[in-house]
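fyi for ur records
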Amino acid sequence: MIHALWHELLSTGATELLAVVLGVAYILLILKRNRLAWIAGALSSGIYVYLSARAQLPMQALLQVYYVLMAAYGWYVWTRAQGQQGGGIGRWPLRWHLLSLCAIALLSVLTAQWLRRETHAAWPYLDSATTWTSLFATWLVARLKLENWLYWIAADAVTMFLFAAQGHPFSSALFATYMVIATFGYREWLHKYRRQSP
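which gave:
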């Protein structure tokens, strides 16, 4: 099994490796609230549009298109927030999260049913759930909401499995790395949120 994994790692193309490197740069820069993260993220996502489509994960491909668009929005919002003490980190009330989770569940089921009928999607329900969760989490990142990290931990865990199951070990390892970084990101943003002026 280790030999097979090593063989897959060696056969991974330069394009996927570049996407992984840019993806790691993105998440580390987000952790530090550096707006250059949005440039790295846009480039990584542009590559993953192609990789996701080739892996028969259409919702992941659409998600990556959304990430490219959100990079411009994130750059704009973070540029405006730079002048605020603590970077303007905020929180959402619990009821908004509950409503958002209900919306994500409903959209995931509807999308998955369509994917099962109209495409050859490998994992329609998981693909849909991670897509909608990630769409929402990305918006929370751009809005500098603390809870974005919790959504990312959940979405990254499932996405790690999806890419591993479809034969992309480096991308799977990237999402495992994202999960670890997201844990530290939540702790660091929480600390900075508590230090902000009321």
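The chain is about 80% helix and 0% strand. thats all i got for now
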